[in-house]
Automatic annotation (TrEMBL):
Alphabetical UniProt keywords: Antiport, Cell membrane, Ion transport, Membrane, Transmembrane, Transmembrane helix, Transport
Taxonomic source organism: Fertoeibacter niger
Pfam families: MatE
Transmembrane segments: 39-72, 93-112, 132-149, 161-183, 195-219, 240-268, 274-296, 317-338, 358-384, 396-417, 423-444
Cellular compartments annotated: Cell inner membrane
Membrane topology: Multi-pass membrane protein
A single Gene Ontology CC term: plasma membrane
The keyword Metal-binding is annotated on this UniProt entry: no
Protein name, as recorded: Multidrug-efflux transporter
Gene Ontology molecular function, alphabetical: antiporter activity; xenobiotic transmembrane transporter activity
The UniProt record lists the keyword Transport: yes
GO biological process, one term: monoatomic ion transport
Length: 450
């Protein structure tokens, strides 16, 4: 008989699982921040090239990471049913699909200069970005395999190792960047290529650590994850592909919304674009908390689904939503109370343009406060829907919300209606709010009833 949990017990279980995932997501962001800061010390053209190259890599990565994210609910449901063989099969096929995606997308990185020139980028920056991507592209496969293993371990509620492995990766990345970008400690000075080598090395090292943990930890040996790795399981592969492709496309649609907003803000002005970038970075840090809680909700919903525990699934979903909304309200208060000091943390306030950036960024953080709640609800709804293995319809709901509503409304408010940057962000709020409403209605209409 399934044990009925109280709401506080659901909250404790969600936080125990979710907080290490929150930490790992924040640490993952720190990898990007350290690359940006250290290349900024090295040179302006190199910084621009790596920012551009990293954007190309990231957009490709989030598409391929859909397979890894599909593994999480599939493993959770298999565990809920007590089917340990299926745990191995689903994870293994997620690893297979990630390898295939990495191989298929590498030509994009090899010939990236031509693609970037066609997108009207500066020739010097495009050439340096290609130098970066030709090396960094080799990191796509290990980066995706790491994501699959993180999903597998999260579904097994082994989230502490995910956190510590990511923190270790940040430390290693800083050290390797210091050596290879600048030529310190007797290493050659390689600039953007050094940053790429550091990234690939960190991804490979993280993969080895997680593989070792998954293969040799006594409690996990019973899954025999890498036993006869070469053997295909076509039904499991099809299921991971069927669930993972819409997840990747959903992430791509959301990422594209914010990429398009940056492009349009660039049409308004340099100061506005700088403030936009800072405000988005602040919002993204808060968003990582919601992502971690959403991942926990995916695992717990998948477990409940596998056990046939409809009441536990619905109660757990309510608690996860409440936790995410509670944190969102704290961020709303913070953004509205201390906007200028938050923006100033990212600037040298002695520079003359800083005052303008702080003033404009303060306005944008008010809109970031508005979309905190919508962003929390939409990412939590996606996590819950993935837990019940519902990904195709949510993909279309997200695409319509972001691309049919969000981007056109942002453009209309910013330019034809003359609202500028605030109008652009109001459009983001509207798109995210529509997505949150549609996705949450979808989940509660699909959630099994007790």
């Amino acid at each position: 008989m399934t044990r009925i949990l109280t709401y506080p017990q659901h909250a404790r279980a969600t936080l125990t699982l979710g907080l290490p995932l929150v930490g790992s997501h924040l640490a993952q962001m720190a990898l990007h921040v350290t690359d940006t800061v250290m290349l900024g010390w090295y040179g302006v053209a190199e910084l621009a090239a790596v920012v551009l190259g990293a954007s190309v890599f990231f957009i490709t990565f989030i598409l391929g990471a859909g397979f890894a994210q599909a593994v999480m609910p599939m493993v959770a449901q298999a565990l809920g049913r007590g089917d340990e063989a299926q745990v191995r099969r689903d994870t293994r096929m997620g690893l297979w699909l990630s390898i295939g995606f990495g191989v298929l997308t590498y030509p994009l990185f090899w010939w990236s200069e031509a693609i970037l020139l066609a997108a009207a980028q500066q020739p010097e920056v495009a050439e340096l970005a290609q130098d970066y991507l030709r090396i960094a592209g080799f990191g796509m496969i290990p980066a995706l395999l790491v994501m699959v293993l993180k999903s597998y371990l999260a579904a097994l509620e082994r989230t502490q190792v995910v956190l510590w492995a990511t923190i270790a990766a940040v430390v290693a990345n800083i050290g390797l960047n210091w050596a290879l970008i600048f030529g310190n400690w007797g290493a050659p000075e390689l600039g953007v290529q050094g940053a790429a080598i550091a990234s690939v090395a960190v991804q490979v090292l993280t993969l080895l650590v997680l593989c070792g943990y998954a293969a040799w930890l006594p409690a996990l040996r019973r899954f025999h994850l890498f036993q006869r790795f070469w053997r295909p399981d076509w039904p499991a592969l099809r299921q991971v592909f069927r669930l993972g492709t819409p997840i990747g496309l959903t992430s791509l649609a959301e990422g594209g919304l914010f990429q398009a907003s940056a492009l349009m803000m660039g049409w308004i002005g340099t100061v506005e674009l700088a403030a936009h970038g800072i405000a988005l970075e602040v919002a993204a840090l808060a968003f990582m908390v919601h992502v971690g809680l959403s991942n926990a909700a995916t695992v717990r919903t998948g477990r409940a689904m596998g056990m046939g525990d409809a009441r536990g699934l619905r109660d757990g979903a309510l608690v996860a939503i409440a936790l995410s909304l509670g944190f969102g309200l704290v961020m709303v208060a913070l953004f509205l109370t201390f906007p200028a000091p938050i923006i100033a943390l990212f600037l040298d306030v002695s520079k003359p343009e800083s005052a303008q950036i702080i003033a404009f960024g303060t306005v944008l953080l008010a809109f970031a406060a508005l979309f905190q709640i919508a962003d929390a609800v939409q990412v939590m709804a996606l996590g819950l829907l993935r837990g019940v293995q519902d990904t195709r319809v949510p993909m279309w709901l997200a695409a319509v919300s972001y691309w049919v509503i969000g981007i056109p409304v942002s453009y209309a408010l910013a330019f034809p209606l003359g609202m500028g940057g605030p109008g652009l962000w109001l459009g983001l709020v509207i798109g995210l709010t529509v997505a949150a409403a549609l996705l949450m209605v979808r989940f509660w209409s699909r959630a099994p009833r007790a």
